[in-house]
Amino acid sequence: MALTVEILTLFPEMFPSILGASILGRATQSGKLTVHLTNPRDFVDATGNAADPAYQRRQIDDTPYGGGAGMVIRPEPIVRAIESVEGQRGAAHKIYLSPSGTPLTQAVVQRLATQQRLLLLCGRYEGIDERALAHVDEEISIGDYVLSGGELAAAVLVDAVARLHEKMLGNQASAEDESFAHGLLEYPHYTRPADFRGVGIPAILTSGNHAKIARWRRQQALRRTRARRPDLLAAATLSVEDEKLLAADDESA
What we know:
The chain has eleven helices and seven strands. By secondary structure, it is an alpha/beta fold.
């Protein structure tokens, strides 16, 4: 099942390097991921006054009603762009990248990975006219901070969703094992050399006992989550064995 992503952005030139590298690049080349970039400026009212300098430069924003700083993106070009994209290539689940949106978590990523078509709307300036946002399905935020626009947030979302999409990863187990996949941070990793500047690796990892290695990794994930993200641990559903691992960790401290 291929994934198609429509991105509405005033700066389409920001995306090719990201989309052409690593997993996204390979997915695009293989046809598992298709990304279409659309500039809403191309949908500025064609009936405008051609002699107006604002029309000539395809001005897409205007001053906010009620006053205030900054400029607001007008609703017409956004809605026309959405209608054009969906009219040409089919309906999509529409997302506005906004600091006011629902936080992007791994659970949200997993939900979005079940979609075959996504449309991502990137905001700029002070935001987008609220009447245009009535045409999207949800708003998503990648964190409690403000960016200059939604493009970087859109790239984050594409990467997170695409790598979970069916058969897009070379080893699907790597997605199932990593941080947040089970509500905890991931355990630490080690590789060659066995000794790096006098620092070795945990002996359990060379024991060949896979049951003990799995238990150690789970304990490390629990320990790391408690130390770095106690909020995640508080929300996680822990087994009796997990509780024993944490208790053993306390006793050895």
